[in-house]
Design goal:
alpha/beta; 263 residues; 41% helix; Rossmann fold; 7 strands; 8 helices; seven-stranded mixed β-sheet; single chain; 13% strand
Length: 263
């Protein structure tokens, strides 16, 4: 296979582009209205940097979007800013970013670096899922070196399970999530194999503006160049998927198995 045929294969059969067109849960129609997408992250920056462009693209197409962060990410503070104060800066940045993208922001306050994986946290996210009723959820992949990201992945998996149980009585009735995807994150890269590419060209600049509300994005809190990494990653994924800018996602293995059974 030469370079041209490889690029063509990546631009067709290997690219689902599920969120860039009418989603699979919508009626089969060119005028189908996108449903609701929910991004669930351990920290606000993770949500905006790795899932924000997908939220923005979905909303730009006429759907609704919700960003849920399990913590304020307060321990990412530089030495010059007290942890609690930085947490409030993160809260303000998230509210501004969500407003710019047209999304709703929900912020839990589990302690950063100590987000618990237990029934209490899973049921709390379950309640948020039942309240928001998303058709699609995007969250962390399990292959992470970050404890909070690992726990977020496990919390969301259990929360989706709980949310769909009719026999589990909560304040809201049961709701089944149709599709689950995992975001591409530099901290969650172990065994991450993308199979879905989303064209984000129409919202690329808006997404960058939303990310720029965070000091971390601007390089003010640590060594990692988040701005350069994620903006460049969007270019690279665009090259592979036949668009100018793209985001890569990984679909849940059970979801892929269901798709294969329906062929």
């Amino acid at each position: 296979m030469n370079r041209r045929s490889f690029a063509q294969s990546m631009g067709s059969a290997a690219v689902l582009s599920a969120l860039a067109k009418a989603p699979s849960w919508a009626p089969s129609s060119a005028e189908a209205v996108p449903g609701r997408i929910m991004a669930i992250a351990a920290h606000p920056g993770d949500g905006l940097f790795t899932m924000g462009a997908v939220l923005a693209r979905h909303i730009e197409r006429g759907g609704a979007g919700v960003l849920l962060s399990l913590s304020l990410g307060e321990r990412g503070a530089p030495k010059t800013i007290p942890v609690q104060q930085y947490g409030e800066l993160q809260r303000t940045a998230t509210q501004k970013a969500a407003h710019l993208l047209g999304a709703e922001a929900i912020l839990f306050t589990y302690p950063d670096a100590a987000i618990p994986f237990n029934d209490e946290s899973a049921l709390r996210v379950c309640d948020a899922i039942r309240d928001q009723k998303p058709d699609l959820v995007v969250t962390h992949w399990r292959g992470s070196w970050h404890k909070d990201h690992q726990n977020c992945h496990r919390i969301v998996r259990d929360a989706i399970f709980y949310a769909a149980l009719d026999t589990l009585v909560r304040s809201q009735p049961a709701h089944a999530v149709s599709q689950l995807f995992y975001a591409e994150n530099w901290e969650d890269s172990t065994d991450f194999l993308p199979d879905t590419f989303v064209n984000i060209e129409p919202v690329y600049e808006k997404w960058l503006q939303a990310c720029d509300f965070y000091p971390m994005w601007r390089g003010q809190t640590g060594f990692f160049r988040y701005n350069d990494y994620y903006s460049s990653l969007a270019v690279m994924r665009g090259c592979l998927s036949g668009s100018k800018y793209a985001v890569a996602l990984m679909s849940d293995a059970n979801q892929r198995a269901q798709h294969l059974q329906s062929l």
